[in-house]
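Entry:
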Amino acid sequence: MPRLLTSVEEQTFSDYDVHVIKGVSPQGKAINQGATNAKGEILIVLDDDSRLADNSVFQKLVDTLDADPAIGMAGASIVLAPDASAFQRRAALQFPRFNTPVVDKVTDSDLACHGCCAIPKRVFEEVGREREDIIRGLDPDLRVRLRAAGYRVVLVPNARIYHPLPGSWRQLLRQFFRNGFGSAYAWKFQRDCVYETHEELDAASFVARTSLPFRIIRYPLRLLRALFTGQTMRFAAYCAYACGYAWGLLRAKESAIAGGA
């Protein structure tokens, strides 16, 4: 958090105030509380473990929104930090969402996310703010609602942030197990917010919702592809996700939302 705040203070765009929300879960509730406290016309959401890669990120986000009122979310690319470990560098090669391409023009993409994004406050209110009743899938849910309202979701040219990747096998497998559990919870109790996530830069081919039979057939194919292409991290992560999903189907209770994610 101190590194994030330092990178915020160094921004060339200075017409902002900072609201740090502590001890509030799930994430949607925390973001909504920050939005309520904020007085500006644009909301910039940052994960507490993110770090702005240079001092021009805020300016680029604001300029992009000002240039096109049809944009509902303007996101920064997540890139590998210069001090990343060998394990993290290897993970970045195998998980596209861990290391997002940096674009040179405004690009409609499903890779924009809450790690660092700017949203006009009027648009945020128009689409109903963040959902406070889901423990996983906040990003795809908001992106779908923004697009349904006619707004673009984009990556901003040359806007970059650092977001730490899992630093060990334990952290990687734990993250994907937790994600699998969260997906199972959503399938059991909130099927209306079960959406796909895209790994390609261009959103043109993206389909937000697919059928359960399709996903069941696709999953072992993804496992085989990871195995035969030598992506051992990806294969292990998929296995951990499947275990978390199975555990969630067996043990997840609707009251789990009270504990956050």
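The two ends are 19 Å apart (CA to CA).
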